[in-house]
Amino acid sequence: MKERIFICLLITALFICFMSCENPIIKTWWEEQENTNGKIGTGSGVDNSKIVKADPIVDWPVGLKGIFGQKLQTVTMPCTHMDTTSGTFTWTKPNTLLGNSRKQSHNLTFTPDDTSHYNIVTKNVDITVIALNMARIPGGTFLMGTPPNDPWYLPEEGPQHQVTLDGFYMSEYMVTQELYEVVMNNNPSEHTSPAKGENKTPEQFPVDSVRWYDTLIFCNKLSVMMGLTPAYRIPAFNNSTDPLDWGKAPVNSTDPNLPLWNAVEIVPGSNGYRLPTEAQWEYACRAGTTTAYYTGNVFDYNTTGWCSGTNLGTDITVHKVGMLPANPWGLYDMHGNLLEWCWDWYSDSYSGASQINPTGPSSGTNRVIRGGWYLSLHDELRSACRKEFDACLRRWFNGFRIVLP
């Protein structure tokens, strides 16, 4: 009888020892029982000062992407510990520059919802850094449009008139496919194969096939991710700046939401991302020059921009951003590659009067697009050349870049 009791006690002791040492969840549970004197909970009989916090069991995320120099978008993921416990992952930008390497190791912090029992833990994880470089564009005055004696003059490019602009920031590149996908969770682009001689990194291509209305959503979402005040609101949706409140973007001229979206406004005092006005675009493209292109009056296929010109066998595809030299203000691909959306409604001429920070007509049918694209003739890439396009349509030649006030 005594031998049986001894054997049972021994087996029990071995079982408890095994479970405590080999299973971290059971071990932590036993530690909590010991440190609460056998009492669990938050009642008056529990001495919480004696609780030893445990490290949560964390399923660390992989394949993260962060926008250069800013905070990674906060995500919530479950953490299993005894019963299901949730928490939040955050990545805070370091105090030093991120450098040039696209894949970098940074501290990711997990904060459990229950911090009374579980510790906040950190771990180095790989984050793919996406560059969003903004060039500073100084304020100033310039002549917008084309003089009538210019051999390339078109009526919609006149009359030439004086425009004064406050300083602003403009993205060095058109919005890339990888940046668009991180913000919007989709990539509408049709160009995903590299041009001849360029390596296979389609994430560095400018995003194409973007509706004008898509750019409004993108700008507001990006602004929130970067801790800025969204620039766009739609009065019909309680002046909301949240694209989720706007419903689906219009896709054709008969869409019932079209008049509502066309009434979009810029929030006064907002500091978020937005499309450039047409005046901002031309001013930034010229970068202090008065010639047809910022490289001079003669188009140079090696330095000015991407277009087929009169030779359809040359450059008849999109190219990675930044392959040609930047203009004097540090902006790439302002001539060619893809057409770029602007904020303004299109009109077939300018007023001719001097203007300060113009935003274009108050209404219209189509929106302005600028810059030309890779199948354009070279005269269509001039700094003053302007076109119009239906804001509802999504085509393979439309891209965009963004500005900040």
Verbal overview:
The protein is an alpha+beta fold. It folds into 3 domains: 2-49, no CATH class; 64-130, no CATH class; 134-404, paralog of FGE (formylglycine-generating enzyme), CATH 3.90.1580.10. 17% of the residues lie in helices and 20% in strands. The chain is built from 6 helices and 17 strands. It has a 5-stranded mixed beta sheet. β2 and β3 form a beta hairpin. α1 packs across α2.
CATH topology descriptor of the largest domain: paralog of FGE (formylglycine-generating enzyme)
Task: Bin the strand percentage.
Answer: 15-25%
The global form is elongated
The number of E-state strands comes to 17
Output the CATH homologous superfamily of the largest domain.
paralog of FGE (formylglycine-generating enzyme)
Keywords summarizing the entry:
alpha+beta, single chain, five-stranded mixed sheet
Secondary structure elements and their pairing?
Elements: H1 2-22, H2 24-35, E1 64-67, E2 75-81, E3 83-90, E4 103-112, E5 121-130, E6 134-137, E7 140-144, E8 161-165, E9 168-171, H3 177-184, H4 212-225, E10 232-233, H5 258-262, E11 265-266, H6 278-286, E12 339-345, E13 355-356, E14 367-370, E15 386-389, E16 398-399, E17 403-404
Parallel strand pairs: 1-5, 8-13, 12-16
Antiparallel strand pairs: 2-3, 3-4, 4-5, 6-9, 7-8, 9-17, 10-11, 12-14, 14-15
Task: Give the gist of this structure.
The protein is an alpha+beta fold and 405 residues long.
